[in-house]
Amino acid sequence: MINVTRPYLPEKETFDRLVAGVWERNWLTNNGPLVNELELKIKEYLHIDHLLFVTNGTIALQIAIKALNLKGEIITTPFSYVATTSSIVWEGCEPVFVDIDPLTFNLDPSRLEEAITPRTTAILATHVFGNPCAIETIDEISNRYGLKVIYDNAHGFGVKYKRKSLFSYGDVSTASFHATKIFHTIEGGAVTTRNPELLKTLAFMRNFGHNGPDDFAMVGINGKNSELHAAMGLSILPDISQIIASRKRACEHYTERLKNLHISYQQINSEAEWNYSYFPILFLTEQSLLKAIKALNENCIYPRRYFYPSLSSLRYVKGKITPVADDISRRILCLPLYVGLSMEEIDFVARILLRCQNN
Ligand SMILES: *Cc1c(COP(=O)(O)O)cnc(C)c1O
C-alpha cells in the first residue's frame, strides 16, 4: 500500500535517550526542559526570535485569534484545511472568503480590498502547500486599513521567502507539527510573532492565563505540549535538511516521469526556497481526476484530494461565491510523497496515471 503520506520516524535510539531523561527527571509537562530546548532549537533553525510550542496547529490558530483580540469579520481563504475556517468560527468571528489565485492557489490579493467592510478586523491566509502568499500586498492593504494578519503556515516549515523564514511574516504565524506534516512532534504546533508584547499574551493564553501560581493575568486555555512530544521533535529536527532533500528528489522524479501527463502544477513564488511539502497535480477536468483516483486505488495507491471540498461550501458558514477555489478543489490531487517512497514506487504511480490517461 502506498499512502499519500507516511509519518517520518527518527532513529529510535535518539528518541529513547531523550525519553530516559524524562524518566530520570519525572517531569512530564508544564514547560519542561525538552519543551524549552525544542523551542530554542527551532528558533535557531528558523532564525526567528519568538516561538511557543503548543498542543496542535488548531489551538495555535485559536490562541492567535484570541491574543489579537479579533472580533467581527476575518477575511480568509476557501482553499485550505478545515481548521483555518473552523478556528475563526470557534472564536466567535465570521469568516469572509476571498477567492484564490488560480496559479498560486493562495488568496488572490487583487480581490482583498473589495471584501473589506467596517467590521473587518483581520486577514487569515494560508501559505498553501508552503507556497508564500502575496506578502507585500497583504502587508500594504492591512496597514492601510488597520487590519491584523495571521498566516496559517502549517505547511511552510523550512520555507524561506526573500531569504527569511516564512514564519517571520504577519502579526502571528502558526505551525502544525502533526505526524503527517514535514516536521512533526506526533501532535503539536506553534505560534510565532515578532512582537515581544504579543508573545507575553500568547504565553499567558497557552497556560490558563497563569501569572505565577496564584495569579491569573487574563483568560487562557490549556495549549501546552508535553516532554514526550518535544522529544520526538528534538529527535527529528537534526534530520530536517535530509528530509527536505529527499522530498525534493522525489518531486523531481515525479515531474520527470509525468511530463507527458496532461496536468499543471502550482506556481511556486519565485522568491521562495520551497520545502517540497506536498506534490499536488491539477487535472484538466474532475472527471479525469476521478478516473485517476480509481485506477490508483485499484493498485493500492491512496492519494488525497487536498483540499476538497472548498471551505466556502461548509454548512456552518454563509454562502460565498468562490468559483476559482471551487474549480481548483475539484481538480486537484496530492500524490504520495514521504521519506522512504522509492523511485520505483514513483515510476509505478506515474505509469498508472499515464496508462489511465491514454485509455
Ligand atoms: C494540518 C493543518 C492545520 C491543523 O493542524 P493540527 O496540528 O492538525 O491541528 C491547520 N491548517 C492547515 C492548513 C493544515 O494543513
| Termini separation | 24 Å
Averaged pLDDT: 97
Overall morphology: globular
Number of domains: 2
Weakly predicted, low-confidence segments: none
Task: Describe this protein's structure.
α8 (240-257) runs parallel beside α11 (343-358). With 359 residues, the protein is of the alpha/beta class. The chain has helices at 12-25, 33-46, 57-67, 82-90, 135-145, 196-206, 227-236, 240-257, 286-298, 323-331, 343-358; strands spanning 2-3, 51-54, 73-76, 94-97, 120-126, 148-152, 160-161, 164-165, 172-176, 189-192, 263-264, 272-273, 280-283, 301-302, 332-334. It has eleven helices and 15 strands. The strands form four sheets. A seven-stranded mixed sheet has the order 2-10-9-6-5-3-4, with helices on both faces. Strands 8-7-12 form a three-stranded antiparallel sheet, with no helix packed on it. 46% of the residues are buried. The longest helix is centred in the C-terminal third of the chain and has 18 residues, at 240-257. The chain has two domains: 2-238, Type I PLP-dependent aspartate aminotransferase-like (Major domain) (Aspartate Aminotransferase, domain 2, 3-Layer(aba) Sandwich); 239-358, Aspartate Aminotransferase, domain 1, CATH 3.90.1150. The protein is globular and about 70 Å long.
